[in-house]
């Protein structure tokens, strides 16, 4: 999980770099949109497979974005990401906790909106 977090953080740093091309930005935007939008290849209500497509497609799209980065930008972004993780070892657990809380809040809000809570 630390490698995924490091790479996602590195991509975030790289996207802020003016040397990053349009292709990398587009792949990152597609990954974000796929993760955020309710439209999926497999509906999330499908047991196991619904979440599996998100767990496979989003990292694949992020990998495409990372491969589209210029090599110097990628190296600098990974170094910044590793440096931040060394200074803030609680970053990964805190990120996971915040993600779980955000998803739980979104699910609760959706249930209230639909009249089930």
Automatic annotation (TrEMBL):
Keyword Cell cycle listed: no
InterPro entries tied to this protein: DUF1232
Residue ranges crossing the lipid bilayer per the database entry: 90-111
Membrane topology, from the record: Multi-pass membrane protein
Keywords: Membrane, Transmembrane, Transmembrane helix
Compartments reported by the entry: Endomembrane system
Ranges for domain DUF1232: 24-59
Name of the protein: DUF1232 domain-containing protein
Organism: Deinococcus piscis
